[in-house]
Amino acid sequence: MPAAGANWSRRRVLHLLQGGILASFGAACYGSSSRPSPPGVTIESLAPAISPTALPPTPVPPTPVPEPSLEEKVGQMVLTGFGRTALSEEDPFGAQLEAGHMSGVVLFDRVTPASPSRNIESPAQLRRLTAEVRKLSPGPAYIATDQEGGQVARLGPANGFPATPSAEYLGHLNDLATTSRLAGQMASMLAGAGINLNLAPVVDVNVNPGNPVIGSAGRSFSADPEVVLAQATAFIDEHHRAGVLCTLKHFPGHGSSTQDSHVGLADITRTWTEKELVPFQRLIEAGLADLVMAGHLFNARLDPVYPASLSRRIIGGMLRGQIGYDGVVMTDDMGMGAITNFYGFSEAIELAVNAGVDLLSFAAEPGYVSGVPAPVRVILDGIAAGRISEARVTEAYRRVVRLKARLLPA
User: Fold this and answer.
1) Highest CATH level, class, for 70-404
2) How many CB atoms are located within 10 Å of the residue 121 CB?
3) Distance, CA of 240 to CA of 316 (rounded, Å)
4) Cis ω on the peptide bond leading into residue 123 (within 30° of 0)?
């Protein structure tokens, strides 16, 4: 019995140490010298259980982590593409990544007007590239791509990866076991390639099947928000099992539009309805929203001046306030026509940050101004001029790094 008692005591002491209550335990047990010991139990008999060799080393207080510089905080708000299939610290982009001037990268498979950066040629090349990104980054980096399936799949047969089904196909089948199996294969493929953030699923409700960028491209699961919700849940669950984060897009809903926001204004004022919020709201309530992408979508009933990606009313009021989302909000590509045709570069960035955006997305590699990426310089200059508050940047930084803590080690 003494041996069993000793083992129990060791486990108990370790438990108490981990719970941070060893001192109060000692005071309660030994604080009064007049309290008699139970028969047969002496201090000496307890010695083996609390001897120095039986206890773990005294914990060393952690070294305080220095507060990041303002420049580093702002860098965490930028996710950007770049036009190379390899990286090194000698490369200007690699040097910026190594300096902590960006939160991560977004990868594309071919050069198109919507995807101006080519990064993916083959499975082996992509694994090398993502390893280089991780090596250069001073901390966890988002390594993102759009792998919705179907027409929007950066990893596909053209670069040595298997074909993946469209959301429309999965929603038409509406068989969750099939969706889970195929989404699991997709997520495993992404994780194996070193990608940790999928800019998917599209949770837009297919209100307008003729929509030039959603419905006609097979990017929506269904016209029924409940089917969208169920399919997206299975899709996200499988990605999480593989250690890949997901993005809900395009808030507050792109499915009813008659225009393509890649090339110009997408006005959903007359076509949008509140049912398009259902998948977003329910996924957020279920804790399945890693990131939410704000679309460049104009709805005068929600904000008579700005599109969703630049709107305090829609991001701060609807998404944060009404729905209660406190995770990372990112923009769709800030180089899309819905933004560049109506706003200057600096103006759009300042509006997005002040609206509550935490992560600015750029498909094309930005220029560099005074040793930092141009979007970083815009935000720093906005802070210096009093147009952006440092508190807003700190808030965004904390959301971004909180999410990054969930990234699995490579």
Assistant:
1) alpha beta
2) 16
3) 27
4) no
Do the Cβ atoms of 206 and 223 come closer than 8 Å? yes
* Centroid of chain to Cα 262: 22
- Per residue in 136-160, pLDDT (tens digit) is 999 999 999 999 999 999 999 999 9
SS3 content of the chain, % helix, strand, coil (to 5): 45, 10, 45
Residue among 161, 256, 240 at smallest CA distance from 201: 240
The one catalytic residue among 290, 332, 333, 358: 332
Q: What is the pLDDT of residues 349-396, one digit of tens each?
A: 999 999 999 999 999 998 999 999 999 999 999 999 999 999 999 999
Residue 379 corresponds to which tokens in the numbers above? 């935000």
How far is 102 from 87, CA to CA, in rounded Å?
15
Give phi and psi for 22, each to the nearest 5.
-60, -40
Q: Is 262 helix (H, G, I), strand (E, B) or coil?
A: coil
Distance CA 59, CA 308 (A): 49
Q: pTM score, two decimals?
A: 0.83
- 262 catalytically annotated: yes
Q: What is the mean pLDDT of residues 179-199?
A: 98
What are the residue ranges of CATH 3.20.20.300 in the chain?
A: 70-404
Set 262, 267, 296, 358: catalytic member: 262
Let me know the angle formed at the C-alpha of 172 by 167 and 177, rounded to the nearest 5 degrees.
Answer: 80
